[in-house]
Fold each of these.
Amino acid sequence: MTEGILLIYLICIIIGLAASFAGSLVGMGGGVILIPSLLFMYHYSDAFAWATPQVIVGISLITMVFTAFSSTVSYYKSSRIHLKIGMLFLTGSIPGGILGSWLNQFVNADHFSLYFGILMIVLSFLFLIKREKRTENDTSGKTPVLSVFVISVIIGTISGLFGIGGGAMIVPAMLFLFGLSIHTATATSMFVILFISIMSAGTHIALGHVVWEYVIFFIIGAWVGGTLGAKVNQLIDSNVLEWILRLMLIIVGIRLIIEGLM
């Protein structure tokens, strides 16, 4: 095995670890880091010629399965996940994820990337609005079932289409629709992303969008990064975590806007 191949494998592990750590920390999955990182390597290194856009989305979703699984295990042990709300989000996000993965091979999403990027930046500023906060197990009040279903279908479709997990919309939705704390919202988001990613990744595998030679190295990084991100999340103050999430949303938005304008 040549040193060049070993270096490629090491880069895959590092990208997987960094993406999964950040994704687990704020409940966004990690695709926001993994996808632009691989796109950069694809454009500027012949060693990553295998990383076509469709392959990158497929690898991102498989990586997120293991990111979300390791995160969910850690969050579940610390009783951070709101299972009732998580299951409600899954009603639309799973079929949406399958739809988005199928649409990935047909849709030129450049303009959509531009508008979605602007939406992410707008969402980041919503955190300036005062909102009702409830206790973690409070299920009082009318649950906006139809609103959650529509949002979750959109989230799942975006996840399958772009491979970004959907957490950029899941966490704000949980914060503003249910008044969850940032810690519970991020934990529950990773629980939802686990199932979205499984369904979406399965579709991409069936479509042949996965280069298995490299996937295992992203998985190694994802497992470690996802576990570390969940543990660090529990040590960070809620206000600090909200600012980190806002920053991540702005980064997502800028990246998508640039992608949409290119």
Note: The two ends are 37 Å apart (CA to CA).
Amino acid sequence: MTAIDAIAASGLKLAHGAQLALDGVDFTLRPGEIVGLIGPNGAGKSTLLRILAGVAPPDAGQIAWGGQTAGEIGRQQLARCVAWLSQSADSLSDDNGAMRASDIVALGRLPHRRAFASLTAADHAAIDRAMDEADCRQFRDRPLNGLSGGERVRVLLARALAVEAPFLLADEPAAALDPLHQLQVMRLLRAKARAGCGVLVTLHDLALASRFCDRLALLVDGRKLADGPPQAVLDDAIVARAFHVRLAHASHRGENYVTPWEPVDPWASNRTEDGHD
């Protein structure tokens, strides 16, 4: 398998009708880093993730996986190199809800298998590892539609992990989880990056983003407003402009983190001190 040294995109544009979901976005993901993709609702985070995963093409712009286009690398090779976790925990429930959790995770091995071939010993080992990492092996024999939303997320994360791809793109993997599993998932994603995987994760939780990510990319209205170390991107002025909130900054056991503290009036800069326009 040809190694992919980066996922690189430039000038990405995508419209949903008259609405621009992405407007000239440049982005690069490299092995060994965990990047948090943050931004308010509707900023274009999920859209960018889908394009980088090769799931959807942009209207304009270029994207390359290890210097190759989608046509050059081929669908199967791309599926081996880039694992993608959808935002929706119910993404398989309509057609595959009766499938056992372990069978859902086994779908992650499809890029490595020939058509209609049985699972190999290596496939079974990868499935077991992925379910252990995602903490869902205990309900491997339960049907997907018999699991809670958070349990489904862990199964779908295990499916992505089972690909054992050098790049992992995860869309809000912590959103439906309880605090324990949020921490476990973020620790796992950071460990994957430390082992050499390139990890891109969309997050709304700025505390998790600031604590676990090596780099943050901030999207607002389909454009990249900032990209860099968490302490630079989570600058008070940048956050106020993007999210209309004021942050509280803190540290614990040598790790810095932030948490949204209070709203910022987006129109305040247009008022005088006495409150009149």
Note: The two ends are 63 Å apart (CA to CA).
Amino acid sequence: MTTATASPAAVAHRRRRRNLAWLRGVAIAAVCLVFALPVVWMFAAAFKTNVQVTDPSVGLFFSPTLDNFRAVLGDSEIPRAMMNSLIVGAISTALSAVIAVPAAWAVGRFRMYRTGSLILVARIVPAISLLVPWYYLFAQAGLVGSYTVLVLSHMFVSVPLILWIMISFFERLPVELEEAARTDGLSAFGAFWRIALPLAAPGTATASLLAFVFSWNNFMFALVFADESTQTVPVTMFNFISYAGTDWGGLMAAATLMSVPVVLAAVLGQRYLVAGLTAGATKS
């Protein structure tokens, strides 16, 4: 009798779970469609002529052309700008990690939260409010137009970003491991270098990737501090927009090329990125 009375309830429960699974799948598909549609349109427009791009009747079925990519790679400043972005992004991210990761370990291990909060102020202050004094100081030092000024300005945001991401990672690491290492004769920094840093590698990769993406996409700093020889991709892409009109095909081709390094970095670092974003989720 108990089985007979419980059976309809179990069937109803399974039906509810199935309906919730379908609803969740539909919601995920809708969100993915909303975010993926602009990317798909950009990629398709990169292979269209300007006439096709502005023609609403031309959808995803058209005769593709490579003329936009030939023009971007051969007749524009995009290749040089991508190299500039890569140089600035790689150097600023590396230097930011060298500074922020040990600082995050110190803040997390020694509970230096006031110092961490002071560094966070640099992340909260709008960067645009600092452009005028920065420009004056960098101009007096003769750095405007150089890679140095771009790297330093990007580090102003990247260091606090990496620091605050990494604090939580070091706080979740068992302190007993470092205490055991210090008992064996290592210094505090030796315990950090040999024990904490390798264990926090997923977090370091995640924070560094996010810092690199910020640097790669940054427009404002390069617009103010760079010259023609050090312009980065976001600024150079404005050359496709003029008073007479917009070269939509070239702009979309340049945007597609600009997306490739970030996508490759995310794909190659996916293992560390997923591990970093989920680190500590199952820990108490």
Note: The chain has two domains: 2-45, 67-278.
Amino acid sequence: MAGGGEGGELQLLGAWLSPWVIRVKVALQMKGLSYEYIEENLQHKSELLLSSNPVHKKVPVLIHAGRPVCESLVVLEYVDEAWAGAGTPLLPADPYDRAVARFWATYVNDTFFPSWRPLFRATTAEQRAEAFENVLPQVETLERALTECSKGKAFFGGDAVGIVDLALGSFVVWIRAVDELGGTNLLDEARVPGLAAWAERFMAVDAVEEVMPEAGRIMEHYKGFLAKLAAPAGSS
């Protein structure tokens, strides 16, 4: 990665499979920033993580010149402001457009993700069918949001990837793994043609390709996760 951070070095505390960490990695790549990446074991969290994020004790945490910034969307805005002249802006210049982008990025975190999580955790066909139906309205809402935010261009951010693209795009590799294993198709071209095409474009962006975890590795982890969920209580 190019050039270091102004005013001190950068460290990112993360977990390779976390969508919240992936979005920050893509943003740092887009800005051309070099940083030290520290992989956290979330079963045995480091003292650095616990002291850097004592409130939530979660990744990602971006540490800039010794000062921690927590929560992925906050980190994205911080990176955009701290390195305003570097790479691609993550938020629009217009105040109203910025507010709209913040709204939809928060929607991904607070509305889409909680509604998709039951599908991610489903271990039976019945659970999967119910969860799939429950998340469809949120996906259809995001299809309309893409039309509103993109103004007919390639991304939520317009011509280039922005904060909403990062928020939702960090889930694409996971959405595809869940669909492949469960036989569902959340980003169905017939139902949400805009999002289906957008997902292909997002995954093909250089900065995304360079940091996105390999799909096979995600799939293997997901299979193991589901096997543990489905195992009878008390089994190892």
Note: Residues 119 and 130 are 8 Å apart (CA to CA).
